[in-house]
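Researcher: Hi, I'm a grad student and pretty new to this. My advisor asked me to get structures for two proteins we've been looking at. I'm not sure of the right format, so I'll just paste the first sequence and hope you can take it from there.
Model: That works fine. Here's the first sequence with its structure tokens right after it:
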Amino acid sequence: MNESEKTFDFWQDHSDNYLKMALNYERRERLESPDGYGKKTGECGDTIEFFLTIEEDRLTHIALDINGCVHTSATANAVAQLSEGKTLEDAWDIHPETVCEYLQTLPSDHFHCAELAVGAFYLALADAERKQKEDRA
């Protein structure tokens, strides 16, 4: 069998980072009063919600709720993993390409999942910044 005829083996052909993020349920929760909240539904129908907890301008806890495929789960968890502990300003530097690099083996035809995850995260960051401005006013 030549390389092009080889069948894809989910467990063997994905990176450790991808597998850990795709199968991670530790962050799955809905927070009642998050410091930042964002929800986005993609054209594929998958939905991601982010709930941010911020202390001293740092993301100290990121919870999420996902209704979607394993790739959506992997990308949302990767965003949470990459952003926890960062300042709000630094969290804006997470892009879909950052997520793909971290996961290593996200199929290219599922790049939209990374865009969806980052889009929902940006909505949560914007909400957090809006709430901070309101608190200062």
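Researcher: Oh nice, that was easy. Here's the second one.
Model: And its structure:
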Amino acid sequence: MEVARHDPTLYNRDLAPIPMSARSWGLYNYASLWVAMSVCIPTYMLASGLIAGGMSWWQAIGTILLGNLIVLVPMLLNAHAGAKYGIPFPVFVRASFGVRGANIPAVLRALVACGWFGIQTWIGGQAIYSMLKILWPAAESPLVGWLCFFAFWALNIAVIWRGIETIKILEGIGAPFMLGIGLLLLWWITGKAGGLGPVLSAPSKFHNTAGFLKFFVPSLTGMVGFWATVALNIPDFTRYAKSQKAQMWGQALGLPIAMTLYAFIGVAVTSASAVLFGEPIWDPVVLLGRFNQPVIASIALVALLVATLNTNVAANVVSPSNDFSNLNPRLISFRTGGLITGVVGILMMPWKLMSDFSSYIFGWLVGYSGLLGPVAGVMIADYFLVRRATLSLEDLYRRNGIYEYENGVNLRAVAALVVGIVIALLGLVIQPLRWLYDYAWFVGFAVSGAVYVALMRRQSSVSGASGE
């Protein structure tokens, strides 16, 4: 698939469409990709945070399953264009926001990914630090902890430098490691707690429906927000798909099943920690530090490091690298974009985002979902309702084409995005409207999508923006 005419400010080798002959990812690759990305410490902490917040085990699992089934819908809708045209997210979003305006949603998505990169790197650094303290108790000091963090950061950067094929290799080995550590934790701690019976018998702390819903609603939004990032940039992966069927079935099988199964491990282990230690320990790194067997704990922490590295690079580097490259394709390659991601990830201070389960779920996940839900609303409304799933591939890579709009920016898309974000986050400043924030992703998605369609249909040249 060649683009006959392209503008060098909009095109480089990393952003170019992937020809069908070069697409090698099948159903197994997408299913394993989701297993590799789902079976990770943030998934575990997502589930354990719900238990720490007062849910019973079945309430926590049900919330996670429902959230992932919901986010699977926009995931598959946005995946379609990637598989059909072989284009990455920052190129796809040019159709709705304009060839220059696309940088707005791309940078929003990239900044959230940078935050996730920092979080995963912080978790990996803490795992190295915990392992050192087990094997060498004299190493315990804040300075060593920071050195471990930056050492793991450097390892991530080295993998980024090697490129996309390294990511594909890592995904095949990361998930088994992470499943192994999860099962090891489950076996060890449930044995100590007297089996699964006592562990899963703990009741919900919510004694009425109102109290439960107050916690459930923002938690569900957080579950959707967890993958709201990849729901936008999934074309970065589906552009390598052999067929639509392969990517759709691979994702539909991989995402909800992998997330729910691994979340169950997080739920069970955290419930068991409450039985054993009198309080739920939601951080598995802290929990592993309580192992009495140094060899077992060290092996588990090494497995955790490999899996965290895999998830971090696949889920949190591919997209922002492409997004930053889209800002200036001539100067910023995939590698350079990855380096920018690494630096910004540190600047976002992940140690504060992970200070407790409340900051993680209700601050980080719900907060950024109010930024990304509106982007998804505009993208999906544009592709399916305005353009009927038809794009002009050539015009996505050149100026003065049908995606030029007003000097490269579709002001209607920007307006719809701003309205959606403002309304979704309004509950942060107006307490009676708190429910808008609790439903941030849903509110932003619906408002921005509806406003965008209304504005596009009001313009006089609808046929000129149809992509035909």
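Researcher: Is there anything I should tell my advisor about the second?
Model: You could mention this: Confidence is low (pLDDT under 50) at residues 460-468.
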